[in-house]
Amino acid sequence: MRRVRLLVIGVLGAGLLAGCGTPAAAPAALGPAPAVHPDLWVSGDFEVTGAPVLPEDSPPDGWLCYWGISCRPGVLAAAGLGDDDPAPVAQTRVAAPVEVECRLGEWLKVHVSGRGSAVGWVAADAVDVPVAVRDISDCRPFVDW
After folding, report:
1. Residues in the chain, pLDDT under 70
2. 46 neighbors 98 (Cβ within 8 angstroms)
């Protein structure tokens, strides 16, 4: 009798596991969610042309800036990048719309829309936003960079 119960439990368990498989047409992965909810992003426009937008995974400042010890100035031209800076993923264009996610020192994490859309870091001086800088969310370590 015990063997019959174990057999029934095993068959039912296998049926449940088979039903939990991945569907044939699973939706594609959407990528990581932004750290700051899009409802809190600030819309703005670029004020300059040619400011580099550095890759999202390579913030120009790190822990020293986060702790308020040392933040390097934003760079308004690719010529101002250092040898150890990554290549820009985009460059700004005057009056092009941009969404600002958060701020780290003199840099903003932005979402550039349109052709060649990108997410990355740009000098705060390159963006015109209609709100006070204090209204832009602060970037958080391990989340935004």
Report:
1. 1-35, 114-116, 132-134, 142-145
2. yes
The pLDDT value given to residue 144: 60
Q: In what order do the strands lie in the sheet with 118-123?
A: 90-91, 52-55, 118-123, 107-112, 97-104, 42-46, 127-128
Structural domain that includes position 144 = 36-145
DSSP structure class, residue 85: S
Summarize pLDDT for 34-54 with one digit per residue, the tens: 567 788 889 999 999 999 999
Residue 48: inside a domain = yes
Q: How many domains does the chain have?
A: 1
In a domain, 109, yes or no: yes
User: Is 87 contained in some domain?
Assistant: yes
Structure tokens at 16: 């449940």
